[in-house]
Each structure stands twice: as structure tokens, then as C-alpha cells.
């Protein structure tokens, strides 16, 4: 006696369905999702500011309450000119650059050092959008600063 052929057709149909769904999932996860997560288009002059890096210094003795800490403390930088900002730790104590509230740039991602900035090290961030960011040092909350990013008038 031979087995009915309809069950073989059913099994082949299920296998074809599984293979088809797998192909759709591979396409979706390999091509569609990464394409939708790409960074936005940003002008070349904003990605490579004309005046180079803008440096904010964490000064020696910044850890002492009442001393200067982030210098300059409340700068305004301009998109296309000074929007690549570097915090340089010239103190002998590790510090952070932590936003007071979650702050994000659609091109560069979340603002804030991912850990401590050790003495002699730097943290840099490329701003591509106008915004005002109040920030502080996590272990030394009296160390505060604010950076304002504006569009150039030129």
C-alpha cells in the first residue's frame, strides 16, 4: 500500500511557507531596519566646523566647591563654526560631563561622557542641532555648566 500523496503536498507547502517567511525576516532585519536607523543627513560644514574644536577646560582645582570648574562656563557655540566641543580635564581628579536631563542630538546621539574623564583625557561631542544643554559633574554636583548651540546668522 502506498501513502496518500496529499500529506506530502501538505508537508512541502509548510516547508515552502517556512522558507518564504525566513527570507522575509532576513530581508527585514538585514536591509529594512538598518536603512531606517541611519543617521540623518547633515551638512558637511556642520560635520567639519570651520573654526575647528571648541575647548572647555576642566581646570585644576575644579573639585573644590566654590572654584571655577568648566571654563568657559556658559559658552555659546555656532553650528558650522564651533559646534565640535571638547571637554579637556586638566584637573588631577576624574570628572564627568553629565546632562542635567537626558539630552540627545539626532546625528551624534546621547550627550554626556560614558564614564569619568580621567586627568589628561577629553570628552568630545559634535552638536548638529540648536539646543541648550545644562550639565554637571556626577561625583561633584556643584560643578555645573551650560552650553548653548545656535545656528549661525551668516
Give the tags.
alpha+beta, 23% helix, 154 residues, Immunoglobulin-like, 2 domains, elongated, 27% strand, 10 strands
Write structural notes for this entry.
With 154 residues, this protein is an alpha+beta fold. It has two domains: 1-38; 44-150, Immunoglobulin-like. It contains two helices and ten strands, in the order H-H-E-E-E-E-E-E-E-E-E-E. It has helices at residues 5-36, 44-47; strands spanning 53-58, 70-71, 76-78, 84-89, 98-99, 104-105, 109-110, 122-126, 131-136, 144-150. The chain has a four-stranded mixed β-sheet, with no helix packed on it. Strand 9 (131-136) and strand 10 form a beta hairpin. It starts with a helix and ends with a strand. 23% of the residues are buried.
In a few lines, what is going on in this structure?
The chain has helices at 5-36, 44-47, and strands spanning 53-58, 70-71, 76-78, 84-89, 98-99, 104-105, 109-110, 122-126, 131-136, 144-150. The protein is an alpha+beta fold and 154 residues long.
Topology (elements, then pairings):
Layout: H1 5-36, H2 44-47, E1 53-58, E2 70-71, E3 76-78, E4 84-89, E5 98-99, E6 104-105, E7 109-110, E8 122-126, E9 131-136, E10 144-150
Parallel strand pairs: 1-4, 3-10
Antiparallel strand pairs: 1-2, 4-8, 5-9, 6-7, 9-10
Side by side, the strands of the main sheet go: 2-1-4-8
Write the CATH architecture name of the largest domain: Sandwich
CATH superfamily of the largest domain: Cupredoxins -  blue copper proteins
Intertermini distance: 88 Å
Tally of individual helices: 2
Main sheet makeup: 4 strands, mixed
Mind telling me the CATH class of the largest domain? Mainly Beta
Find the CATH topology of the largest domain: Immunoglobulin-like
Instruction: Report the structural category.
Output: alpha+beta
Q: Give the topology string: H per helix, E per strand.
A: HHEEEEEEEEEE
Shape: elongated
Unreliable residue runs: none
Q: Helix content range of the residues, please?
A: 10-25%
How many domains, in number, for the residues? 2
Q: How much of the residues is beta strand, in percent?
A: 25-35%
Report the mean per-residue pLDDT as an integer. 88
Amino acid at each position: 500500500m502506498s501513502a496518500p500523496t496529499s500529506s506530502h503536498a501538505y508537508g512541502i507547502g509548510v516547508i515552502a511557507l517556512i522558507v518564504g517567511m525566513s527570507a522575509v525576516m532576513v530581508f527585514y532585519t538585514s536591509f529594512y531596519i538598518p536603512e531606517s536607523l541611519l543617521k540623518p543627513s547633515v551638512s558637511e560644514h556642520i560635520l567639519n566646523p570651520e573654526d575647528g574644536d571648541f575647548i572647555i577646560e576642566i581646570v585644576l582645582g575644579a573639585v573644590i566647591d566654590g572654584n571655577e570648574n568648566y571654563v568657559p562656563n556658559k559658552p555659546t557655540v555656532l553650528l558650522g563654526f564651533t559646534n565640535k566641543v571638547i571637554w579637556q580635564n586638566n584637573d588631577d581628579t576624574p570628572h564627568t560631563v553629565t546632562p542635567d536631563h537626558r539630552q540627545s542630538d539626532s546625528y551624534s546621539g546621547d550627550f554626556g561622557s560614558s564614564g569619568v574623564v580621567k586627568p589628561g583625557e577629553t570628552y568630545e561631542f559634535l552638536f548638529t542641532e540648536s539646543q541648550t544643554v545644562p550639565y554637571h559633574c556626577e561625583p561633584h554636583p556643584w560643578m555645573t555648566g551650560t552650553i548653548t548651540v545656535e545656528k549661525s546668522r551668516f
